[in-house]
Amino acid sequence: MHLEVSQLYKQFSTQQGALVALKDVNLHVETGEFVCVVGASGSGKSTLLRLVAGLDLPTAGTITVDGQKVNGPGADRGMVFQRYTLYPWMTVQKNVEFGLKLQGVEPRKQRETASYYLEVVGLTQFAQALPKELSGGMKQRVAIARALASHPKILLLDEPFGALDVQTKERMQQFLLGLWKRTGISILMITHDVEEAIFLAQRIYVLTAHPGTVQRELQLDLPGDRNYHVRREPQFQAYREEIMDLLRGVETAVV
Ligand SMILES: Nc1ncnc2c1ncn2[C@@H]1O[C@H](COP(=O)(O)OP(=O)(O)OP(=O)(O)O)[C@@H](O)[C@H]1O
To answer: What pTM does this model have?
Structure first.
């Protein structure tokens, strides 16, 4: 898998005139990598992920997955949003099966695949529950299972833990890291949470605003296993300061 974003430019027309949300954005994700894009509010993170997902089209520039130009949504990219997007009237199992049904997968295979991925995310015993019976973290695990069930080449995560409380968020980060290690799936995730990005990613792109552009690319090299202790490591704190300084720089420039 090779995702390539090249010279991406996105402009919106607003009542105040043209707004350049993204300018000259270049990034890539390789097979099995976990890459985060971190940026302040308004830096164009969601816009970037929507373009990669094919939910919107760039004004200029290209996005390719394995050399194929992205022109719309596709099964090669599985998306998980910040807001819960499960169908409230469907059971957890049916929610996970739904994408496969749309793809014309036969019913027995739908059931088997959905059951497999519900097991992967640890929710087998909630297969027959309705979304309203689940906690926020569990809903996001279902959304991840649903995205994985279509066997995407890459998982696109748009602030997936943004709506969760601090403890649940930490548990979900650990869960996602474990899932990534077990499945070897490629991940592109956006977040405004700097510590979350450092904790999860192998590489980070720092996006600064007005217009949104990549200011720095960091290859992370953290010692030991990544559990919450790693946050206390001097290297973790050094990365945090470096990224925070980049983001602060923008804020002072704007004020
Ligand atoms: N459909 C749209 N029409 C006009 N302007 C838009 C549209 N979508 C986004 N924008 C503008 O583009 C800029 C980037 O927005 P975007 O939502 O991508 O940022 P973000 O980094 O995801 O922010 P946040 O973290 O607050 O969600 C903002 O100035 C926003 O107002």
So the answer is: 0.94
